[in-house]
Amino acid sequence: MQNPQMLQCGLCDSELLEHYHQDKFRNYWQCQQCKLVSVAACDRLSPQEEKAIYDSHENDLDDTGYRRFLSRVFEPVHSRLQGHKQGLDFGCGPGPLLAKMFEEVGHSVALYDLYYADNPEVLQRQYDFITCTEVIEHIGQPKSVLTQLLAMLKPGAPLALMTKLVIDPKRFASWHYKNDQTHISFFSRETFEYIAKQFGTKLEFIGNDVIILSKQEVVKVDGREA
Q1: Which keywords are on file for this protein (predicted)?
Q2: pTM here?
């Protein structure tokens, strides 16, 4: 087991991590400040091993079940949009069905994925909405990614995340979600409450696995930001 003194939280930079769980593949640690549960770098897959698992996934654009799954993110975001909007699907994967769903109702969506749509130029723009479905749990340094995504949002715009939530150690032990070895960061409601406070966003939980962080509107007094 790795020395906990060698660990640092990828969300809040705290070194106050306690052992949370161990299975036959790896150990899991929980930050005592933001409550993120994470896998230490020494227990993570290599990029090549990670991509091989992603390549085995079947994300068919014509799969009605997959469309129904993504509708849990699509519907609450679409309901917040008026007129033609420009969005970003961050971590779109090889089959960007969610982007297609938004385009079907008149929006434009840029694509970014480290492995399947590595278009860094799209990360230099501002967006009316950003979706990040089943992605954040794959990221070892969520602080830097969330900082980047929220900086790309226009005032009032939503960042919609989809990820399963940690409940407690007992249920974590039998949780299928942790068994995917590409999953290395696990968030709870407490963790997202910490994120919302740190980044100054509005926080909404929708169902069991959709989280919306809305960037605050800029309030102007006499033509100046207040």
Answers
A1: Methyltransferase, Transferase
A2: 0.91
